[in-house]
Amino acid sequence: MESEQAILAFAALAQSTRLDVFRLLIEHEPLGLPAGEVARRLAVPHNTMSTHLAVLTRAGLIGAERQSRTIIYRAKLDTVRAMAGFLVKDCCRGRPDVCEPLISDLSPCCSPQALVAKEAADD
User: What is the C-alpha to C-alpha distance for residues 13 and 68, in angstroms, rounded to an integer?
Assistant: First the structure.
């Protein structure tokens, strides 16, 4: 990830509603959420949510897919990975023991299959 792209992504997340949207979409990977459901869950007017979703999309943090009349938004996990890599690129300078706690914190809490099962149970 280049510095300019990182700055754009971090700037998009430097607003509380957009950060909440992004975290909600991360929580609902890999299925994503319809735009209206995102607005409803965060109690944000639809037109305001549309603006926030556009900012996150331009920053490359989320993507949208039209399914009939519904637009499903998903977090772009590759961008999240690139952002984390950008932040820790020069971590530890040859001392992996220094970075190990950070790396373990970045490890997913459960398998992708468990996430799909959890999502199905929540709906």
Answer: 29
* Phi (first) and psi of residue 109, to 5 degrees: -80, -20
Pairing of strands 70-75, 33-34: antiparallel
- Give the tokens for residue 83: 């952002």
Amino acid at 92: C
pLDDT tens for 5-36 read 989 999 999 999 999 999 999 999 999 999 99
Q: Is 109 helix (H, G, I), strand (E, B) or coil?
A: coil
Residue 10, token pair as written in the block: 């971090």
Q: What are phi and psi of 72, to 5 degrees?
A: -100, 130
| CATH class for the region spanning 3-89 | mainly alpha
User: What are the residues whose beta carbons fall under 8 Å from the beta carbon of 34, sequence distance 6 or more?
Assistant: 70, 71, 72, 73
